Amino acid sequence: MLTIWYLANDAVTEWVVASMNSLRAVEPDVAVKVIPYDDRIEQLCHLLPRWNADIVDWPLSDYDALGETVGARPSARGMFRKLALLGLSDGPNLYIDSDTVILRQLLPFADAWSESGADLAVADADVPQAFHPGPLAQRTLGFNAGFFIARAGLTDLSNLQTLATDALRVVDQFVIENVDQPFFNFVCDEAGWDVRTITQLVPGTPYCTWSERAIDPVQPWIHWAGRSLAYDMSHRELWVRWRLEGAAPAEKARFRLGETRTALKRTVRHLATRRSA
Ligand SMILES: [Mn+2]
């Protein structure tokens, strides 16, 4: 049975609300679960029943330690917790980042992936975001770690720990600012997994889901990868539409008030800069 997974904490609840609202509009029945990024999950746990989603209470510090081994900055090590999905005994498991809005059903990708017999499915690839120039940059896909479908039991924690130690010999090639992305690609390369892209799985699907682009009519989701939730983000109107989907009038009013406050602050700052210039 397919499960769709997020990795989140209270710092990203705004993103989670929009992404899960949009997910439930196209996938009302599939199991949705969340891996806690860290201990800050009180607000998130309060919200999850809206989407019939659960948060897991697994011990996850060993995954943070993978990040420590390969030199990821302390505040970002929670990203490695998504790798726990590679060791689950049930599957398939589909992971998607919360800085997304889901535009189309995801089940067709999971079905096509199952039929393909592949180990892993990925979306956007961008080698320079995973590896500096060198052997790994030349031979890997450099996929973005914000989406994948993995079969059950692909690897386990002890294997990942061994690979993290092995990675030290090539870690100078890692774009470690992108945290888990180089390590995930390295693991894939070492393990020799059969990896497919969403374009290979469902022909016609655009390879790129980046938010900076115009939205393709058959694009499955939009991903604000590497972008913060900013007033001037691209396709903001789409994000706001899903952020407010199903919200009570009071919540909508609160959100709009926050927007107005942000706009005013920007204007004041802008005027202050002009005056001092
Ligand atoms: Mn992302």
CATH fold-level topology: Spore Coat Polysaccharide Biosynthesis Protein SpsA, Chain A
At CATH level 2, the architecture is: Alpha-Beta Complex
How many strand elements?
9
**Main beta sheet:** 7 strands, mixed
Considering the protein shown, what is the CATH homologous superfamily? Spore Coat Polysaccharide Biosynthesis Protein SpsA, Chain A
Bound molecules: manganese (II) ion
Look at the helices and sheets and give the structural class: alpha/beta
- Unreliable residue stretches: none
Largest sheet strand order:
3-2-1-4-7-6-8
**Count of helix runs:** 10
Q: Structurally, how many domains make up the residues? A: 1
Order of helices and strands: EHEHEHEEHEHEHHEHEHH
Mean pLDDT: 94
Structure summarized in a few sentences:
39% of the residues lie in helices and 13% in strands. By secondary structure, the chain is an alpha/beta fold.
Characterise this structure.
By secondary structure, the chain is an alpha/beta fold. It has a single domain (3-227), classed as Alpha-Beta Complex (Spore Coat Polysaccharide Biosynthesis Protein SpsA, Chain A). The protein contains ten helices and nine strands. The chain has helices at 13-26, 42-47, 61-70, 107-116, 135-139, 157-166, 180-191, 198-201, 236-243, 249-276, and strands at residues 3-8, 31-36, 53-55, 93-96, 100-102, 120-122, 147-150, 195-197, 221-223. The strands form two sheets. Strands 3-2-1-4-7-6-8 form a seven-stranded mixed β-sheet. Strand 2, helix 2 and strand 3 (53-55) form a beta-alpha-beta unit. Bound molecules: manganese (II) ion. Manganese (II) ion binds next to loops.
